[in-house]
Amino acid sequence: xEQQGHGAAPTALVSAQGSVAKxxxxxxxxxxxxASGGLEAVADFVDALAESGPPQERREAQxxxxxxxxxxxxxxxxxxxxxxxxxxxERCKAIAEEIxxxxxxxxxxxQAVCALLKLDRAAEAEEFAVDAASTVRGDGPRxxxxxxxxxxxxxxxxxxxxxxxxxxxxxxxxxxxxxESGKDSNVDYTAFGPTNVAIHRMSVAMxxxxxxxxxxxxxxxxxxxxxxxxxxxxxxxxxxxxxxxTRIHEDAFATLHLLEADRIAPENVRLSVTAHEVVRxxxxxxxxxxxxxxxxxxxxxxxxR
Length: 305
Known about the structure:
76% of the residues lie in helices and 0% in strands. By secondary structure, the protein is mainly alpha-helical.
């Protein structure tokens, strides 16, 4: 990413944009270690552009700083580090307010919600999500994606505290936005679209402890419709199915979904609380002939009884 010759600053900015995009794609492919390993060098480079680049490029570099802060928050959330995630979300918010970008403010709010959930501050998380969703303005795919994403996480938080009626109402609002968009997209790496809404419907069913509703929702999901590279989201679909089949003692089906999640995104399985709980439950009643591969998966993911 060295700056050289005439027009070096635009070249440097384009290079930085490409590097940040690659890191987000690596994260969405559930290669968290690789994404984390490349983050610091790219962040330092973007910081230098934002501080000393030409004025006309500074705002774009600051937008990249927001994008990097979002990625840092996502990685911290995956690692269950709510404090680091919160700090990164606050940094994104401060920069977004400086450059007057409402969509990066939405991104900061979304990551703040995720951080608050990790910090067991669900009431604040729900308030953040609902308030942020109500302030998204304008038209176009960014508005649809961020408003819809905030409604989805608000639905999850409602279900987490047992309010299925409100959770499903918010899912319905998000579904309406997704249908208006007409396709599964990945604007600002939100993965928002009809398929993602359907996967969140499964998450809500899991939080409401309703495996049959989850499996019914899963029948409506075609994960091949997701944008390319979203391995983490696909693994989430399989882990939710594994949870539901475990709850109704269909252990062979549960194990098949676990193995598929592990094939698609092994780092996701290693870090997933749901995966660990399901594997332990299955192992506690394992009959090896019925669920081959379970113990090997547990070893790969570092899951103990």
